[in-house]
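Posting this for the archive.
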Amino acid sequence: MRPAIGFEQAPSSPGLSSLVFCMNDRTKAQRVMEGQAVALAELEKRFDHLRRTTQNVIEESTKRFAILRSSRDQAQAIMEAQADQIDRLQKQLLELKKLVSAAKAACRKKGRCFDVAKGPKPKRSPGEKVRREIARVPGNLRRLFRLTPAIDADKKLAPPSLEERYAKWIAQHEPSAQQIEAQRTESENWDVRPKISLLIPVFDTSQRFLEALFESIAGQSYGNWEACVIDGGSHSKKTIATLKRWARNDARIRIERLQKNLGVAENTNRALRLASGEVVALVDHDDTLAPFALYELAAAVQAHPIADFFYSDEDRLSETGARSKPFFKPEWSPELLYSFMYTGHLSAYRRSFALCLGGLRKEFDLSQDYDFALRASERAREIVHIPHVLYHWREHPASGAAGGKPHARQSNLAALADAVKRRGLDAEVLEYPTANRVRMRLRNLPRVSVIVPTDSPIRLTKCARKLPQQTAYADAEYILVTNSALIGKLRASAEPISPKVRLVAFDAPFNFSAKCNAGAKVAAGERFVFLNDDVESKQSDWIENVIEPLENPEVGAVSPKLLYSTGRIQHAGLVTGVRGLIGTAMHQWSDDSVDYSNFAQSMRNVSALSAACLAMRREVFFEIGGFDETNTPISLSDIDLCFKVRETGRRCVYTPFASLTHHGHASIGPTEEESAETAPDKCSIFLLKRWAAFTCHDPYFTDRMREWLYADSPMPIQMFAGKNSETAAGERDLLFVTHDLSLSGAPIILSHLAKWCKARGIFATVMSPADGPARATFVEAGIPVIVDSVVATGYDRFIQFGQQSLSRSHESFTAFARNFDCVIASTIFGAPLIHDATAKAIPLFWWIHEGLVGDHFIRKFPILASTIGLAEFIVTPDQRSRQIYQSYTRHSVRVLRYGIPDIGSARDAERKPGPLRFLLLGTMEYRKGQESLLQALDQLPQKILERTLFQIVGRPHDDRLVSKIKAAATKSAHLHFSDCVSHKEALALIREADVMVCTSRDETGPLTLIEAMAFGKPILSTWVGAVGENLVPEEDALFVEPGDAAGLAAAITRLVSEPALLQKLAVNSRKAYESYFSFDRFGQEFLCLVEEVISAHKLNRAAKPLEEAIAISP
C-alpha cells in the first residue's frame, strides 16, 4: 500500500535516505538563492540611486567649476584694478608727504606747527597771551605789506590763449631753421625747378613793412624766383630808396616805376607783363611770406602738372610782427568762394593761364583778386590747396586785414554778381553782415514732400498737428511714417488732422532707412526733405531756404543749421576722418558766432549732412538708390546717402540761412536705442569698406582745420585710405593693431598678411599709435590705416603699463574695435589691449613676436605675467618663444610659423663672379650680435678674407656698436656699412648677396632669413627662431652658436672654400622656404586661428546669460 503524501517514513534503504537529504538541501539552497536574488535586486537599486546621485553631484560640481573658472579672469582683472588703485594711492600719499615736507621747509616756524604734540598743550595765563600778541605785531605788519593777492583757481586752470596756442602750433608744425636749410639744399638739386614770379604792386609803402617783405622773399628756401615790383608813382622818398637798394643788391628783384598810380588791378597787370616765370603769385606790398612759402609752392606745381590755380593757408601779422588768427582752409569749395574770398593769400596761377584770362580787371579794384579767383575757378583744369601757412597778412589801420578798405565790400559783391551772371545761374546776390549770399530764385515753387519717420506717440501727434503750421510754404505735404497702431490712435482722436498730412504704415522692425524709403516711395513732391520728428523751426520760410540751393544742378543735398534747445550749434555740416569716423563741425558754437572768418554763418560745402533735416531733388534720391536699408539701417544712414551723392560728382551744401532746433533722438524708441548701444555696429565698418577714401579724408575739413577747430575729441588722429570700393562685401572684418608703422619685422609681416586677407575677401583695417613708413604699404594695397595716439600699445605706453601708471586705451578705441569680428594685437607691446578686450568682451588674439625680449619684460613687470594669464589666445612664431609664455597661462599657446609672399626666382640664386658677398641685415643692437661677425673677420685667414665682401646694414640703435662697426669698416676694404634702408632697398640687397648671415642671440623668425630663402640664398645663422627649428644643419643651412666667433669664422671659410657646399645650401634653402615658410600655408593657419577665436567668443557670449541666471538663482 502506497503511503500518503506528506508523511515521512523511515527509509527502506541507504540510497533513498541520501536522496531525501539531497532534496532537502536543494530546497534550502533554493531558498537561500531566492533571498540572495532579492538582496541583489535591492543592491542594484541602491547602486542605481548612488550612481545617479554621484552623476548629479559631478555635473553640479562641473557647473560650479566652470562658473568659478569663467570668473577667474574677472577676479584677476578686479585684483589688478585694485592693485592699480593701491599703487595710485601710494603715489598720492608719497606726493602728500612731499607736500608736507615742503610746507615744513617753508613754514616760518620751521615745521614746528606740523609736529605731533607729546602731551596736552600748557594753558597760558591772560597776561602771557597779551604779551605774545604784542610781540607778534611788528611781524604781522611786515607781512601785511609783503602779501601778494592769491591766484584765482579758475585762472590757474584756464586754457591757454589763442596766441599761446598758435605759438605752440607753430613750434610743432613749421620747419626749423635746420629743416629750411635742408629744403634749400634739396630744391637746388631738383630736376624741375619752376620759376616763380611774385607780382607786387607798391605805392608809398611804409619802409618798415617793405623791408620786412623783401627780407622774407630773400630768405626763401627755394631760390628760383623773381619779384616783379610795380611802383605806382610813390611820393615817399623812403619807399623809393628802399626799392632801389633792394634791386641793386639782388638782381631777381625787378622794379618798374610808373608816372602815376593806375590802381591795384592795373599795377598788378603791369607786373604780370614783366614776369617771366612759369607761375605767378600775388603778394601785397605790406605783407610777408613764410621762409618756406616758395619751396612748398614749387613742390605743389611739380606734384600737380595740370593745375592752374594754387592757394595756401595764411595768418595775420601785427604791426610789431606778432603772428595770430591762423586761417586753415578747406580744399576747393565753390559755395564757400561765393560766401567770401576764402582762397585769399597766397594765391598763385600759371602765367599762361593768367594771361589767357586777361589779367585783373580794374573795374573791380579793391576786389580784383576775388574777381580773378572767380573767373579762374571757372576755367582751371585743377585747383590745388597747399595745406601750409605760407602767407602773413599784415594788420594795420589802412589794410584790408584790419577793415581799412570799407569800399571793398561793394566791389566784392559786384564781382560775385558778375560771376553769377556769367555762369547762367538764376540767382540774386545779397549782402549779409557776415558773408555774401547767392540765393537761387524759386520761379515755380516745386512741390515739397517732408518725410518724417517716427515711432513716438507724442512726437507723431505733435508733428501731425504742428508741422503744417511751422512753415508758410504753400505747396508742401507732410508724410509721417509710423506703425499701424499709432496711425489708428491718431485717426481716432478728436482733433482733426490737416489734409496736408499723410500717414504711411510701417510695421516692420525699426529701420530708419527703410522708413525714409517707404515715405519717399509714396511722396508726390519734386523735392524731398527728410526730417526727424524732434526737429522744430520758428522760421516760417525754412523750407524755401533749405531747398533753394538745389536749384543749382551741381548741388545734390542740403542741410540747415541745427541748434540745441540751448541755442548752441549742434550741426553746421558733418566732418569725416575724426575719432569715431564722423563728427560735427562748429559743435557747441554760439548760433551767431562770427569766429573763424564767419564759418558758421557762411554757406559752404561739406563732406556729409545730417538726415535730421536733409533736402534732395526727387530724381537724385532715386538715382542713387535712396537710403541703404541693409548696411546702414539706423546709424550712419545719412553719411552713406551723402557719399553716394558725392560719388555722382554733385556737392553737399550746408546753409546757415535756415535754423531749426533739434531736441534729441526721439525718432528711435527706447528698445531700439538700448539695442543700438549694446550690439556691435557694423555700419562704421561698412563706411570703411565701401567709402574708405571719403571716410578717412575730408576735403572740406582738412587735417589742419581739425587740429585747430574740432573740439569734441582734440587728441590727434590721422586716417589714411586709397580709393573707395565699388562693393562692401567681405567674409570677415579684422582689425590689426600694431605697435608702430616702422619697417621692422612685425609691421612688415603684418602688411603681408593684411594684403593676403584683402585678396581673399577679408576686410582688414590697421591701427597704430604712431605713423611710419610702413603706412604707405598698407594704403597702396587699399587697406585703411588709422594712426591714433589713444590706442594703448607701443613702447612708451607699454612701459607705462608695466609701471602700472597707465593701462587702458581710450573708450573710443574699444567702441570702434568691438565692431570687428576679431582684433589682432601685434607684439608684446600690445599687452594693455588684453585688458581692453577683456573689459569689453572683444574677440582678440595676441600675436607675440618677441622671444627672450618678452621674457625680460615679464621679469621686469609683474603685471605682464598676469596679463599673459588673462589672455585666452596667444600666438608665437616658434616653439622656443611658445615655451616662454606657456608657463604663465593655463591656456594653450599656439605657434604660427611665419610665411612671406614668394618674392624670389631661380635667377636670383645664381652666383655672380667676384668676391663672395655676405650680408648681415638688422637693427644695430646687442641682441643682433653684429660684434661676433667683427670678431670672426679678425680670425679669417688673409687668403679667405681677400675672396670675400661683407656688408652690415641696419637701423642704428646702439651708438657704441655703430661706432665700432664704422671703425672696422674704415680699416677694412672687405667690410662695408650702411644705416637705414627701406624694405624695398633691403630686398634688393638680399637679392644681390651670395650668403645671408644672422648672428642674433634672440629671434623668432627671423624675417630677413626667410626672405633670403625665398631668393634661394645660402644661410649662415645662429640657432635662433623658426629657421633654426626647421632647417637641417649641413643640408639646408650652416648653424653656429650665438657669440661663437671662431665657429662663425670656420663656417665662412667653408663657404668660401667649398663651392659644392655653397650650391647645395642655395638649392636646399629655396626648398626649405617652400616646405616651411610658404605664404598660403601661413595665411590659412592664421585664418584657422581667427575662426577659433571668433567661435570661442560666440560660445562665451551665448553662455553668459546662462551663467548670470545661475549666479542669481537661489
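Confidence is low (pLDDT under 50) at residues 1-12, 108-119, 144-156, 665-677. The longest strand covers residues 383-394.
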